[in-house]
Amino acid sequence: MGLFWRVLIILPLFFAYVNGEHFTYPSRHPGKAELAGFKGPDSLATDGGGFFSGPLVVDNDATATTGNQGGTTEVTVGKPEDDTLVASLDNDGIRYANLIEAATTFKGSWELFLENGGVSAMHLILLPKINQALVFDATVWKISKIKLPGPPCRHVEGTNEEDCFAHSVLMDIETGKLRPLRLNYDTWCSSGGLDINGRLVSTGGFNNGSDTVRILDLCDTCDWKEYPGALANGRWYATQVTLGDGKFMVFGGRDFPTYEFVPPEGKKNTHQDVVDFNFLVETHDPVENNLYPFVYLSTDGNIFIFANNRSVILNPKTHKIIHEFPVLPNGARNYPASGSACLLPIILKPNEDRSVIPAEILICGGAPHNAFEKADLQRPKVFLPGSCDCARLDFTKRDSKWNIFNMPSARLLGDMAVLPTGDVLIVNGAKTGSAGWDDAREPNLNPVLYKFQTDGTSPKFTVLNPSNIPRMYHSSFAVLPDAKVLIAGSNTNPGYLDDALFPTEVRVEKFSPHYLDPNLAMFRQEIIAEKSDNKLKYGQKFTVQIRGSGVIDQQKLQVTIYSPPFVTHGICMNQRLIQLGILEFNKDVTPNTNNIVLQAPMNGNIAQPGYYMLFVNYNGVPCLRSIWIQILP
């Protein structure tokens, strides 16, 4: 093909962007509080949103100017190695060369997915295979924005009342269709995780739900199965973690500085199954600051636990603390100071044989130790500034110390989503105050991108385009198969209120991160699911087939697997992203189709058994859609 025709074919790709009018979200749901925005289950199934197509271009100082949908694409080019040429755009015009890497100044865009999600998303998790988001709040309110489809209604314990509102829904992440689910035992401030078969196992909650275990199977007609009394201690504001053999442990909860293993379905723990955990006594401030501890399985099978400002390694077999790390200064990090945390990507090499695989935690934000006292107990309320710092720690090394650095703005009540590329999206939350009812101010509307780096260079943050919906206390997120991020929740009120300073929020958004710049669409590969392995054993060699245009540079390929977290109160239980080692890259098995040969993680301490989303990223741009894989013991 002549050079002239190549230009004509390829050039339009670099100028593709979406034009549109600025979309303004409705101010609030009209009408009475108990029925505001409720039109019935059938209408909710089709409620949709407009596209926020004129994003704001925000610099690191968080100022904003109007911009277009696409970012500025910068392409680094090299000398062609063969006669296959790819057009690249720079400030000088068009050049022809093999594309090596691409970057973008695009800072994301927001889309209103649902005007009414039915339930305010205090808890949120993406369920595998069925691609539905499970959302639930608390039965204590006796109200939501969506009713149960019919009898029986829930009998309100200790009263003659009946509650006919749904407090849990399944949300189709493509269509927005909602299916109400029935709950009898209160899930307020509960915990959870996916089992090996992709079912949600939920623990604890409030009042009659505090010692309950719940299970939701994956089917079109499945509803909650509830097992009250299954836990020996009440677990309100507790943290659940999955172990390398697929079993669960649940740590803490208000008034119970203990932990226990979650019993098998239908079984009950006794007090002999409870282990006292003095670390949670020692880290308890007068206003707590150690609820919802950050708990992660280490790659060596031990458990990393962070509460308030201290962190330890626990051996779950001997029940002994085997190491304590230095104190993290500058305030408290757990509820109600409510910073956020995530496990950074676990990077595996081809033919992995290291005895210890590094694992790092990232903790950002939080509040002074007395922030809750000032905002909740003092009158007039005083809203102390939140923390601006982040800290990293490799907890597989006993001599590790905290690496502390500043993020662009203060944040508490935020969430940390690990993106398919391994970068971290810090989103939601406030700049001042504390967790609690009406205890925070100054919504932090701008997400921040933390660029994950392992080379010891300085941390890099980028302030992204803002939403115009405050997401305060009780906000949540889910990373989606198309690499967008579902954003939901926010309720600073003890009930469903539309006339509060920060009303109870049932609108649901989707955020398109930087890598979804339309000018980078050419790099998005398609995974051929029917030609890719999706049931794996530990250490197994397996193949993923991809299709895309142009010649693929293996050095720019990245394959990651992601375990969907149970998200609530700024904590993302069991969120885990693992970069797999690439063993082989077989080009052009058919035209424009390539096979990637990979190695599954070596054991369950690296990747717990169960379901993961597998992403193929090229030039830092995720594939069109991930596939679900299941790792079996």
Report on this structure.
This protein is mainly β. It folds into two domains: 109-516, Methylamine Dehydrogenase, Chain H; 524-631, Immunoglobulins (Immunoglobulin-like), CATH 2.60.40. The protein is 4% helix and 36% strand. Strands 27, 41, 43, 46, 49, 50 and 51 form a seven-stranded mixed sheet that branches. It has a five-stranded antiparallel sheet with strand order 1-7-39-38-37, with no helix packed on it. A four-stranded antiparallel sheet has the order 8-9-12-13, with no helix packed on it. The longest helix has 8 residues, at 3-10. The protein starts with a helix and ends with a strand. The model is unreliable at 1-69 and 72-101 (pLDDT under 50). This is Galactose oxidase-like Early set domain-containing protein.
Question: Which range best describes the helical content: under 10%, 10-25%, 25-40%, 40-55%, 55-70% or over 70%?
Answer: under 10%
Radius of gyration: 24 Å
Taking pLDDT < 50 over at least 5 consecutive residues as the criterion, the unreliable ranges are 1-69, 72-101
Whole-Å distance between the termini? 51 Å
**Number of extended strands:** 51
Write the CATH architecture name of the largest domain: 7 Propeller
Strand percentage lies at: 35-45%
Largest sheet: 7 strands, mixed
How many distinct folded domains? 2
CATH topology of the largest domain: Methylamine Dehydrogenase, Chain H
State the CATH class of the largest domain: Mainly Beta
Q: Please, how many helices?
A: 4
Q: Structural class of the helix and strand makeup?
A: mainly beta
The shape is globular
| Mean of residue pLDDT values | 87
